[in-house]
Specification:
The N and C termini lie far apart (35 Å). The protein has eight helices and seven strands. The longest helix is centred in the middle third of the chain and has 29 residues. The chain has a single domain, classed as Rossmann fold, CATH 3.40.50.720. By secondary structure, the protein is an alpha/beta fold. It is globular and about 50 Å long. The structure holds nicotinamide-adenine-dinucleotide. Nicotinamide-adenine-dinucleotide binds next to helix 1, strand 2, helix 4 and helix 6.
């Protein structure tokens, strides 16, 4: 297993789904984990799971959309080796069925939230002379997915922020990559199915599962395994890359 011994890792949205699996995996690998969460109860749950297993974790209540909150929390943490920009929200809709309020909400969490964390964490990494950043993008960043206008737009922005940051901080020894999962079974997926397809939950779950040629959704732990590699020293040659983790969604759907 790759080691993150003595590294401090900040994980946004670490209270649920993929972020929680990454937090648990990183703590198992020896990192001190900082969970940045809107949902304090969920963050406390993850911290409990990690500390019960003998790991180190701390929860920080914070809305990633709020720059001052993010700056206050990250400056208080002070020492950051790894930043995982994972917090994100879903939205279903086309350009003409996406309200201005929904569009702004997606921008403020999925795009501005990532920018705020970069803005706060990169100066701390520069002081240390090194750092690793991992952004959670999506296959929706590069493939036309029906009914995901605002969400796809936001993940396209996450993908380009990844390239931009990887380029700008090469000389500072800061690596930056992204993972683009297809559907991963988390409360995020259950939530948007329940909200948008009431009464057809099973049918939609089945359809979304089969949209991966491998025949199922991914598991949060499968994303966490790749995240661990990308944030470890063994991935020291990897920067400016986006990794598909998609059960064949992009290349085998023909
Ligand atoms: N699940 C999938 O199928 C899938 C696929 C591709 C990409 N992703 C991306 O992976 C990431 C995690 O998804 P998930 O499925 O684990 O979601 P999830 O809903 O299970 O967890 C997201 C967490 O982020 C937190 N969060 C939301 N808004 C926040 C804010 N403003 N400030 C702080 N925390 C906030 C939530 O409280 C929640 O705990 C997201 O960026 C999502 O877009 C998910």
């Amino acid at each position: 297993m790759f080691s993150l011994k003595d590294k401090a890792a900040v994980i946004t949205g670490g209270g649920s789904g993929i972020g929680r699996a990454i937090a648990v995996k990183f703590a198992e690998a020896g990192a001190k984990v900082h969970i940045i969460e809107l949902n304090a109860d969920a963050a406390a749950d993850t911290v409990h799971e990690i500390t019960q297993a003998g790991g180190q974790a701390e929860a920080h209540s914070c809305n990633v959309s709020n720059q001052q909150q993010v700056l206050d929390v990250y400056n208080k943490i002070g020492d950051i080796d790894i930043l995982v920009n994972n917090a994100g929200i879903a939205h279903i809709g086309e350009a003409t069925t996406t309200s201005e309020a929904d569009f702004d909400r997606i921008v403020s969490v999925n795009i501005k939230g990532v920018y705020n964390s970069l803005f706060a964490a990169i100066p701390l990494m520069k002081q240390k002379g090194k750092g690793v950043i991992l952004n959670m993008a999506s296959i929706a960043a590069t493939v036309g997915i029906p009914d995901r206008f605002a969400y796809s737009m936001s993940k396209g922005a996450v993908y380009s922020m990844t390239l931009s940051v990887a380029k700008d901080y090469l000389a500072d020894n800061i690596r930056c990559n992204s993972i683009s999962p297809a559907r991963v079974h988390t409360p995020f997926v259950d939530g948007f199915i329940a909200k948008n397809y009431a009464g057809k939950e099973e049918e939609i779950f089945d359809k979304l599962s089969k949209s991966q040629p491998i025949g199922r959704m991914g598991k949060p732990e499968e994303v966490a395994a790749l995240a661990l590699y990308l944030c470890s020293d063994e991935a020291g040659f990897v920067t400016g890359c986006d990794y598909l983790l998609d059960g064949g969604f992009v290349k085998l759907n023909n």
